[in-house]
Amino acid sequence: MIWTREKRYQPYSAYSEADKETLAEQVSSSVYKPAFHIHPTSGLLNDPNGFSYFNGQWHIFYQAFPFGPVHGLKSWVHCVSDDLVHWHNLGIALNPGNQYDSHGAYSGSAQVINDKLFLMYTGNVRDKNWQRRSYQLGAWMDENNQITKVNQPLITAPDYVTEHFRDPQLLKVNDEYFALIGSQDKQNLRGEFSLYKTQDLKNWEDMGYIKHNLGDMGYMVECPNLVYVDDKPVLIFCPQGLPQNILPTDNIYPNVYTVGSNLDFKTGTWYSDTSTLMQLDAGFDVYASQAVNAPDGQAYLISWVGLPEINYPSDKENWAHCLSLVKRLKVVDNKLYQIPVTAMSTLAVAEQTLPQNQQVLVTDTKQQYELKLDLDSNQTGNLLLASDGTSDNGLQLQFDTNNEGYLIVDRSNVGEKFATKYGETRKVNVNPHKKLSLDIFVDHSICEIFINGGEQVMTLRFFAPQTQTMIAFSEQNTLKYSGSYILLSDM
Ligand code: FRU
């Protein structure tokens, strides 16, 4: 199938029910299909949108092109959960197609307002010369999950930004609402954070760009997201074309964060003690993460596990990508920690202590498990996940808790190759001569590695034969470690 522009943007009604069933069947029969991660029921999934708690349930929507593994006409698909772990997919909630979102209901956020959930999103429009226009739009969702669009744009792009103006995050600050929007300045073609203010969601005051000391943000900022974690404002976003001297990264585009001391909404100024940008995730595949301050007092984060402009092996099965687990956030010494939510334990089916003095730790993982592994200090070694037990085949985790202190994830010897242009290893530094604590979730084709209590996270996709089911060290070991293997159920 050649995905022409016409095919990507034709109305959903042009596809038959049979087309959709075939696509859904391709996902459900895929060996790569995740068991406890939100994934598309058909076609492509990208950014998480509208992460919120409303009407006694958690809500997440995701960007979807349900008809193939490509970025086409986007809608929002709705998922709900009681515990942030078991998610139910309710199908498409927000359809594109009117004059303000004819070419896609793009990313956005949600806020509970009175007894409804207000969705704020970007309407993507192309004219006949394929010139893009972006509108910031609204929609109300009631307690029956019925959505009614606001029929006029909330915000139209000011003349000093280009057509790249999207991904509003609606924030409530005292009695006012603010929208944080990713934009590209027309004069400099650089990425900026636009700020708007409103009392009534109808009249919006343009407060200009947020003033900050973070330096050059590249040519575009996507998915800006402000969340308060342990009383500190944390700004999470996706700068495209970020200079390597500001933050070196191997990924095509990074997802980054910075911890501030205050965002002054009166003046639109970001204050921080440092101007440091950090990678939100040190793995290969995290983008467009969205965090929310929840009514339970916690801050939670969820990420798209996928990157723009990269082909993944599941594309040939006509589907692509998944969302990460939900992660609870905390800040320690201006560093963001990401921790799996406690309800993950409800997926546990059986737990076994890891054997000592053996090369193979688990023979048949079923590829859906949690591995808790504490490696003692002053050792080096190589742990293989999805190993066939015969060689170095597998997802390699090379560790050094000795003089250097590092963890390297190497996906060059595990199944189908992809995105090799961006390198096949990722490395994090850890404290030398210290214990290394790993909490790893493997779900068929996705792996999330939480390091030292979530101080660093490495998330990645890998596409290995499901017959490679061992967890093993690459050599007969005399290593010192402790831990357990927990078989997990479907969500
Ligand atoms: C990020 C992004 C957003 C946009 C959406 C469209 O992945 O490009 O900026 O709103 O995806 O699906």
Molecular structure report:
The chain is mainly beta and 491 residues long. The chain has helices spanning 5-9, 17-28, and strands at 43-54, 57-65, 75-81, 87-94, 105-113, 116-126, 132-141, 147-149, 155-156, 161-173, 176-185, 191-198, 204-209, 220-229, 232-240, 256-259, 262-264, 269-271, 278-279, 286-293, 299-305, 319-320, 322-323, 327-332, 335-340, 348-353, 360-362, 368-375, 380-387, 395-400, 406-410, 425-429, 436-443, 446-451, 456-461, 470-473, 481-488. The strands form eight sheets. Strands 26-37-28-33-34-35 form a six-stranded antiparallel beta sheet, with no helix packed on it. It is globular. The mean pLDDT is 97. The chain binds beta-D-fructofuranose (FRU). Beta-D-fructofuranose binds next to strand 1, strand 5, strand 10, strand 14 and strand 20.
Keywords:
binds beta-D-fructofuranose, 2 helices, mainly beta, 6-stranded antiparallel sheet, 37 strands, 491 residues, 3% helix
| Beginning-to-end CA distance, first to last residue | 32 Å
Spatial order of the strands forming the largest sheet: 26-37-28-33-34-35
Q: Which molecules are bound besides the chains? A: beta-D-fructofuranose
Share in β-strands: over 45%
- Specify the helix fraction band: under 10%
Backbone structural class? mainly beta
Number of helices in the DSSP assignment: 2
Detail the topology: elements first, then pairings.
Elements: H1 5-9, H2 17-28, E1 43-54, E2 57-65, E3 75-81, E4 87-94, E5 105-113, E6 116-126, E7 132-141, E8 147-149, E9 155-156, E10 161-173, E11 176-185, E12 191-198, E13 204-209, E14 220-229, E15 232-240, E16 256-259, E17 262-264, E18 269-271, E19 278-279, E20 286-293, E21 299-305, E22 319-320, E23 322-323, E24 327-332, E25 335-340, E26 348-353, E27 360-362, E28 368-375, E29 380-387, E30 395-400, E31 406-410, E32 425-429, E33 436-443, E34 446-451, E35 456-461, E36 470-473, E37 481-488
Parallel strand pairs: 1-22
Antiparallel strand pairs: 1-2, 2-3, 3-4, 5-6, 6-7, 7-8, 7-9, 10-11, 11-12, 12-13, 14-15, 15-16, 16-19, 17-18, 20-21, 21-23, 21-24, 24-25, 26-37, 27-36, 28-33, 28-37, 29-30, 29-36, 30-31, 31-32, 33-34, 34-35
This protein binds beta-D-fructofuranose.
